[in-house]
Input
Amino acid sequence: MNSTQTRQEIVVGVDPRGGWQPAVAWGADEARLRRLQLRLALSVPPRGDARHADDSPHHRRLEEDGRRTLTEAISWAQARSPEAEVVGSLLDGFPGRQLALLSRQVRLVVLGTRHLGRVEEILSSGSVVIPVTAQAGCPVVVVGDDDEDGQDPPYLVVGVDGSEPSGAALALAFEEADLRRCALHAIAVWQPPVFTLGSGDTLFHDERRHLSETVAGWREKYPDVELRPEVRIGSPVEVLAEAGERALGIVVGRRGQGGYTGMKVGSVVHGLLHRAHCPVITVPAP
Output
C-alpha cells in the first residue's frame, strides 16, 4: 500500500477494558466529515508477559475478548455513521507502541483516556496517551470519558505562540472549524516579564499585533470561519483550559519528539491532557 493510500484513514485506539465509546464517536464523526476510512485498532499485549508463567491460555483469552470488543465497536461506529467505511485491526503488542507506529501512516489518531495518574502513565505497560502523543507522526486527539457537550454556538480553541508547531496547530484548527462550521478562538497567552525596560502596555499591544499578523493569512483562506483572536494574561495551561471549558476541542502544537522513552510532550500539552475538560488535539511540527 503506498503512502497516499495509507494516509486516507483515521485510527481510533479501542480500549479492551471498556469506555471506548467517546473516542470511537469522535473518530466516526471525523471520518464522516473528512470522508475517510475509519480504522478501529485494539492491541493485545504480547506473549511472554512476566506476570504469567505460562501465558498461552491467558493470551488466547485476551485475543478472544479483543475480537469481541472490536466487533462490538465496529457495529457501534457503523450505527453512528452509516455512510463511513469502518474496518478493524487486532494488533499484537503493547498499545502505545502499536498506535505510535500506525500514526506514521494515517491522517489522525484518536484516543480515549482513563485519566491515569502521573506515575501510572509512565510505568504502566498499558499506558497509551502520553507515549502516542509524544511519538505520533500525525495529529492526536485525546477524548476524555467525562467530556461534556460543547457550547451552542459551537467553537474550537487554538493556542498560538508563533512557533512552528503552533503554525501547524493553527492550520489544523482552521480546517477543523471550516469542516464543523464553528467559530475559532485563537488565543495567545502572554506572561509579563519580571524585569523589562519597556512598558507593560506597549508589550501587550505588541503581542496583540503579532497575533493579528499571524492569523491574517488564514482569515483570507477560510473566510467563512468566524475568528476571534484574543491575547490573555496568565499560565498557558490554565488560560487555554478555561477558554476551552465548553469547546469542541483545544488544538495545540507539540514541540519536539518523544525520543526513546516517548514521554516528552512539553509542559503545556502535558498540563492540558490532565486539566482540560474537552478533547485535546495535539499537532506535531511538519
